[in-house]
Amino acid sequence: MKRLAPPDVLKKAEKIKLFVLDVDGVLTDGKIIIDDDGKESKHFNVRDGMGIAVARDIGYMFAIISGRYSKVVEHRVAELKMNEIVQGAGDKLEVFNRLLEKLGVTAEEAVFVGDDINDIPVLTAAGFSAAPADADESVKPVVDFVCNKPGGGGAVREVIELVLTVQGKWIT
């Protein structure tokens, strides 16, 4: 059964200008594929990408904060023309605060989508927070919205659609 966002969450979504995303477990299914030559690959969801492109094209900003570094992520971010990418982030909250300042938005105007314990500080600081359906159980109680979709399976698109629908900007 599809979970609907409660009215207080919808109110938070009205203010969003910036989408900040974790990568592994959010934009991907969390699996890291490394071949015999040490080359890494990840699975990204094309519908998440379409949601990002639609929102970006109407003026929303996008940023990545990842605890890991991956060349694959650089390629995906470039392809989607996201505004900012920070990989190898030890203190994600510090990075989040720097991004807010750089992009000229407040925490209230930012949504963060994360899935694991290292995301909790940012999830609690963002004006609106969300987690994929398959996020770590320690994350779910601290977010405003738990998606119906899993990481790498449309969770990002779900958050984008929720925000844009609330703001009257989603294409139907």
Protein architecture, described:
This protein has 6 helices and 8 strands. By secondary structure, it is α/β, with parallel strands linked by helices. It has one domain: 3-Layer(aba) Sandwich (Rossmann fold), CATH 3.40.50.1000. The strands form 2 sheets. A 6-stranded parallel beta sheet has the order 5-4-1-6-7-8, sandwiched between helices. Helix 3 links the parallel strand 4 (61-65) and strand 5 (84-86). Helix 2 runs parallel beside helix 6 (155-166). It is globular and about 50 Å long. The relative contact order is 0.22. The model has no long low-confidence stretch (mean pLDDT 95).
Query: How much strand content do the residues show?
Result: 15-25%
Radius of gyration: 15 Å
The named CATH superfamily: HAD superfamily/HAD-like
Overall pLDDT confidence = 95
Category from helices, strands and their pairing: alpha/beta
Number of strands: 8
Globally, the shape reads globular
Q: Output the helix-strand order.
A: HEEEHEHEHEHEEH
Task: Give the biggest sheet.
Answer: 6 strands, parallel
CATH overall fold name: Rossmann fold
Task: Quickly count the domains.
Answer: 1
CATH class (first level) name: Alpha Beta
Widest beta sheet: strand line-up = 5-4-1-6-7-8
Helix content: 25-40%
CATH architecture annotation: 3-Layer(aba) Sandwich
Q: What count of helical segments does DSSP give?
A: 6
The end-to-end span amounts to 22 Å
